[in-house]
Specification:
Two copies of one chain form a homodimer. Helices cover 40% and strands 18% of the residues of chain A. The first copy, chain A, folds into two domains: 110 residues, Alpha-Beta Plaits, CATH 3.30.70; 261 residues, TIM Barrel, CATH 3.20.20.
Chain lengths: 381, 381
Amino acid sequence: MTDDKRITVTYVITAPSHDIEKVSEEIALEQTVEVPRSVVREERIFDEIVGKVISIEKTGSGDISRYLVRIAYPEIVTGFQVPQFMNLLYGNISFKPGIKITGINFSKDFVRAFRGPKFGIEGIRKDAGVFGRPLIATALKPIGTSADQIGAFCYRFSLSGIDIIKDDHGLVDFPFCGFRERVSRCMEAVAKAEGKTGKRALYFPNVTDSFERIMKNIEFGLEAGVGGFLVSPFLVGPDTVRYIAGCDWIDKPLMSHPSFSGNLFTHGDQGISPEVILGKFFRLIGVDCSVYPNFGGRFHFDRETCSAIAHSLTDDQYHLKRSFPTPAGGMHLDTIAETARFYGEDVILLVGGSLYSRSDDLGENVRYFYDEITEQKRLQK
Amino acid sequence: MTDDKRITVTYVITAPSHDIEKVSEEIALEQTVEVPRSVVREERIFDEIVGKVISIEKTGSGDISRYLVRIAYPEIVTGFQVPQFMNLLYGNISFKPGIKITGINFSKDFVRAFRGPKFGIEGIRKDAGVFGRPLIATALKPIGTSADQIGAFCYRFSLSGIDIIKDDHGLVDFPFCGFRERVSRCMEAVAKAEGKTGKRALYFPNVTDSFERIMKNIEFGLEAGVGGFLVSPFLVGPDTVRYIAGCDWIDKPLMSHPSFSGNLFTHGDQGISPEVILGKFFRLIGVDCSVYPNFGGRFHFDRETCSAIAHSLTDDQYHLKRSFPTPAGGMHLDTIAETARFYGEDVILLVGGSLYSRSDDLGENVRYFYDEITEQKRLQK
């Protein structure tokens, strides 16, 4: 098999030095044939299906130390589909401590099996009519608020010139705030504000819902003229997102929320590096803007991690469009200028709570937000 | 709000003693309104939506120690649907170290929103025609094997009197082993063996596949007369499984595989206890038999964990049928009698690799398997 038919996964493995080769070989077997080497009776299967350990490199010291291990898997084992790719990546070994996935190189034909983002950075900029600066965004919240009140928030934000307004990712179809009612109120708000300002905010309702309702939510949103859709891949299944992104008739961008995925990222010794999932994988399945916890907020990602995510959403990946890094998670208006400097112009800055709490005048808060990031831009020049 | 309208989650939280109240309150806010207390302007929302910390109990010693914390959430925040329930349970806090979910008490109306297992232990026993002893099961593997060869394995296993034969969970629709071809070969094998022995093995093909193909796989399987379906909830999305389980026309039991979920379970300080997900949650979404790594195999669950999973699949949960505990993951024939003793009769014992490797005579290996667990049963009496 030629190398361009292989997907290479990089692991950091914590293991005693006398075990590292065995542990590495076991991963290559576990993630493919799921039986010990002795049970793989056909040599052809060993050659064409089982992963190949291509390098083992010590990165720490002492007897129990860390090793950088690279394993190349035949792309055919993915079935060129998301669920089996996830299984190959981290199916059974998710149960094994001491294994952390830190990188992945896709093969060309594997990537080509996916459409990727339909809009990407350029498409969203065109829809928003914003070029040469970061986009500014906020969230409608909290759960418990009526659709009318959510609509009122949406109006005040739209009027103030914000670019994107998304539902909080916990806003589903509640009896006290129905999905359709909320979308209707918000679209009325967006249109009314546009009548006054000439600028139309893009509203992204949360379409995350049960299996039988998610597509209906999307249909309703399209008819209402929404700007895009918010969806949580790990709540609805990542392949559901890939399917949505692949539908021609769904001609709006997708914003992902990382709900329920965090446990993959918070350990030094196991799990998966955030940029592999919230960056590379989400972009592959067609996410146009990926929300993730920014540094300095109420979660624990550092600058290096955030930089790696942003890079993996925007680097060169065959035909895939670039996705918008969308840092969020307790970002403060006080430090938003610094965040804008960190990312440069290709970023959606998503500020929720701080935009509600700075003062009672939401419009004034948004103008402050806008000034902070454009002031910062002027200072840069 | 009365207590029976609340879902109570138990956490073990690792935090400094001066912080534990604050950390607990923050969880109650983060998982519901996602804003600080000061931003929850309507008192009604605080009362009706935000979780209530109902107890904090120290379980360790020292300044940084562990606390058992119980938080009661209004059931309405779940939207009575799987994705938002997952978000409430572990959406944003999955990004926070030091928080482990160790238990959950569902409210009655929340459970009533779900159908649960259609078959359960009694239904599967009836289909298999097996009463008063554990069921014995195996897996067809490895990836790379042709559909004809998989069919040949299936024939030899069927002929030997095994109760359930499942696809390996990595067997999807491969060009070298198509889903339909595999199901056809296996059903021919099962029928041919039944003609000789009078006993029909239940074949569970793996229907895990892309969003647009999973239901087609199920339709094909039903037409072919399969015994049930294998599906990996975390690869296709848990709510997809709930949807399948809820369809009247899908009149076959579901077996779940825990692929990609393991990272939730392998840490002392964070994640979710396995019995909450592989037991309680999987049963809620309609899994009739839940595959999980047994103690003493090639993964790291201990006896206590396995016992807790088995208990949560079979305890009293309103109208929910009891699901079959299905331990697997490197179980050896040498110790299978001990495993059978551990679980008692209501268990499906799933042996894969060891059943292939004991000798070249698969039929003889199955007879050994059967004798071990029935011998053990005789000794018990």
